[in-house]
Amino acid sequence: xxxxxxxxxxxxxxxxxxxxxxxxxxxxxxxxxxxxxxxxxxxxxxxxxxxxxxxxxxxxxxxxxxxxxxxxxxxxxxxxxxxxxxxxxxxxxxxxxxxxxxxxxxxxxxxxxxxxxxx
Amino acid sequence: xxxxxxxxxxxxxxxxxxxxxxxxxxxxxxxxxxxxxxxxxxxxxxxxxxxxxxxxxxxxxxxxxxxxxxxxxxxxxxxxxxxxxxxxxxxxxxxxxxxxxxxxxxxxxxxxxxxxxxxxxxxxxxxxxxxxxxxxxxxxxxxxxxxxxxxxxxxxxxxxxxxxxxxxxxxxxxxxxxxxxxxxxxxxxxxxxxxxxxxxxxxxxxxxxxxxxxxxxxxxxxxxxxxxxxxxxxxxxxxx
Lengths: 119, 240
Fold this sequence. Notes:
- The complex is a heterodimer.
- In chain A, 81% of the residues lie in helices and 0% in strands.
- Chain A has helices at 2-22, 28-45, 53-64, 66-69, 71-75, 81-86, 88-117.
- Chain A is extended.
- In chain B, helix 2 (18-37) packs across helix 4 (65-77) and helix 10 packs across helix 11.
- By secondary structure, chain B is an all-alpha fold.
- Chain B has 2 domains: 5-77, no CATH class; 84-239, no CATH class.
């Protein structure tokens, strides 16, 4: 587990440096995700197979409880209750209706594009 | 127990991160049990339940959020490595992702801009102040990027952070039911929709439902961060 965690943190570290260094508008961990993906594909090309069992197990463990990791930031909403309460009507409408409409539109669009462009 | 011992224990718990960490993990466990007990009802989203319980607890006990976060930050920190770990499911679905690349990029780009546009339209319709409207525009993007965008277009980054998290929870809780309603059954499309509109919290939900949806959701979250960060400030200046 420790080797895999080291690899994940290392990818994030390089990602953060790249994001800040080049001024990329993407968070460091997302760049780290791309780096790891490229690394895994390269590993396969060189005939070493995909991710090792240790990395697979660690990734499954972390991602299986991904929701947990959002809780500390989520509880932070209590800091902004006065701000949220001030304009609660437009804010709640945008959050609920806006998000669900976006999910519906993106899903429909993706489904029809996948049918016509995909395969 | 000796009198005075209790006070000593209290001082220890208030100072060390252990109490906040224990509370976070225990509440998460309770939320998962509750979700099972309610037979996976869409509104029984574990993130929603856990955040509501902890937020209510902190408010009721008068505990400062910063004191809580000092302990909970160890959980928060793992978000970075977990985001990197999304490369593993993405790799597993790589053949499928490659074949769907054009459709994925197009739908995430358009979906991300639609999410911003409908947020702004609804806010304007309800007569929101300009800074609130600008804070609602980057709602669907993962938190750090959304705060950066809000700052550039004249929004309030802290309000954006709260709105992003609420949107993620709403999307995770009600997104799958919405997708059923509009008959989106392709797991790739369902994942792309969740990741575009509900970033990491939506991805967390997608991963628990289907591995293909989880991989595409992680991909959509990353892509949407990139496209919205590039396009939204530009469009804002052109239209604003």
